[in-house]
Design a protein that fits this description.
Oligomer: heterodimer
Distance between the termini of chain B: 8 Å
Distance between the termini of chain A: 135 Å
Shape of chain A: elongated
Largest sheet of chain A: 6 strands, antiparallel, barrel
Strand content of chain A: 25-35%
Radius of gyration of chain A: 40 Å
């Protein structure tokens, strides 16, 4: 050891290292005076160099103005594109839903429409759609979704139409139980409309309808085509006045919340019964 | 007269270290390569040590290390001790056993940079559980390479200062 430190340079090295270590330990345990002093001494220089660098990176007022205008225009364009994108996305999703309807029933002429208004006072959840006579909608046209029949056009004007739902007593559609072929009339009832249910009334006393049976339109009358799904039977009850049976039917669609529908503007055999009735009348 | 030149040379080295510190620490001044900036004080101190006597070499190593430590943290520590020792030893080696040449300088600078940065990673990152080997690959390899590239310029600057501010 003594030999090692006999060299003057090594002594200086040892002293320097010891000084560094002591300074480091003192700085680590207390106030870092070295860095404080150094920062104090170099603060001005660092500020100048940082300012010079920042200044070199700064853009002129005109450049910033031009860039701002360009970016604002880009943002506006992108917003428009985004709105268009969402519109197209919604429309695409809606049309895909109805593609299967027309695929399975090529004779159906359907018109997609959006629900634009709901009558909050109507206990049978009628609503208004954005299609009217200008689009080919007529009174009594069936209104459906991919889940089945939900109502009919009760009044129509040029650009909009009012839809009365299957929950309303105004609805009168011939229907059958697909399992038993028992027939009846689908019509709403104030006792059930609140629960989103409708009824299949005027069914035969010997009908064998059971819970879970699927009810569809019968096609009789020429207003609704045959085999439009109305819903499934929830329960079978007796009318308290005339002791006839009726089935409580739950539509597959949530009619209270439906937002887009299709109007069935034409189908095979549409209005045939009416014509036959007229002939009979003659 | 020689003393006066030595004084000016040491002043030039000091100014060089200070400028390199500013260059390294000022935002947006030095371009980043793969997110890393060079550790300019390492090649500067090493190339000074190649040409100077042990004591000046040691002090410039100490100064360079101190600046590096201050650039990273608020206290002296790892880099100060390492560069003080390394510069002393390099000066000793080149005074007695080796000749100062470009290849020798690059070899020593590269070795020192890899060793110092590698040991820093080992002690302060890996053993501290702050990062795995990929952390070293992602953060330190680019810095090591960038530092070695900068060493070329610093070698010629210090060689110029040593030759022109040595004596008449």
């Amino acid at each position: 050891m003594r030999e090692f430190f006999a060299d003057k340079n090594r002594k200086i090295l040892a002293i320097a290292l010891a000084a560094v270590i002591v300074t480091a330990v003192l700085g680590a345990t207390g106030n870092p005076w070295v860095s404080s002093a150094f920062n104090f001494l170099t603060k001005g220089l660092s500020s100048v160099s940082a300012a010079v660098t920042d200044a070199a990176e700064e853009k002129s007022y005109d450049e910033l103005l031009a860039e701002n205008k360009k970016l604002s225009k880009e943002a506006a364009d992108l917003r428009t594109q985004l709105v268009d994108y969402y519109d197209l996305k919604d429309e695409n999703a809606r049309l895909w839903k109805y593609y299967n309807i027309t695929k399975s029933k090529p004779d159906y002429q359907i018109l997609p429409a959006n629900v634009i208004r709901r009558d909050s006072n109507d206990e049978f959840y009628s609503f208004t759609i954005d299609a009217g006579t200008a689009s080919g909608v007529e009174p009594q046209d069936p209104v459906l979704t991919e889940n089945g029949l939900i109502g009919f056009i009760s009044s129509v004007n040029a650009a909009s139409s009012k839809v009365t739902t299957v929950l309303s007593p105004d609805m009168q559609a011939g229907a059958v139980d697909k399992r038993t072929a028992d027939s009846g009339i689908v019509s709403g009832n104030s006792s059930y409309s609140d629960k989103g249910l409708t009824t299949l009334s005027k069914i035969d006393a010997n009908a064998n309808i059971k819970k879970g049976d699927i009810v569809t339109t019968s096609g009789i009358g020429g207003i609704y085509p045959a085999n439009l799904i109305v819903g499934k039977v929830e329960e079978l009850r007796y009318n308290e006045y005339d002791a006839t049976k009726f089935a409580v039917v739950k539509p597959y669609e949530n009619i209270k919340k439906v937002t887009d529908v299709v109007v069935l503007t034409d189908f095979k055999n549409k209005g045939e019964v009416k014509q036959a009735s007229k002939k009979e009348a003659k | 007269m020689e003393r006066r030149f030595t004084f000016f040379r040491f002043m030039a080295y000091s100014l060089e270290l200070l400028l390199l510190f500013i260059l390294q620490t000022t935002p947006n001044l030095l371009p980043e390569v793969f997110g890393g900036k060079p550790l300019l004080m390492i090649p500067a101190a090493v190339t000074i040590a190649l040409m100077e006597e042990q004591i000046p070499a040691m002090f410039f190593g100490l100064a360079g290390g101190a600046l590096l430590d201050l650039a990273f943290s608020d206290n002296l520590g790892y880099y100060t001790i390492m560069l003080t020792l390394i510069c002393f030893v390099i000066s000793l080696i080149f005074r007695d056993y080796m000749v100062v040449s470009f290849l020798n300088a690059m070899g020593f600078t590269s070795a020192v940079t890899i060793a110092v940065v590698g040991l820093y990673y080992l002690f302060f990152i890996a053993l501290a559980g702050k990062g795995d080997f990929m952390y070293f690959v992602n953060h330190y390899i680019s810095r090591i390479v960038y530092t070695i590239v900068c060493a070329v310029v610093l070698y010629f600057i210090n060689k110029f200062l040593f030759r022109n501010l040595r004596s008449l």
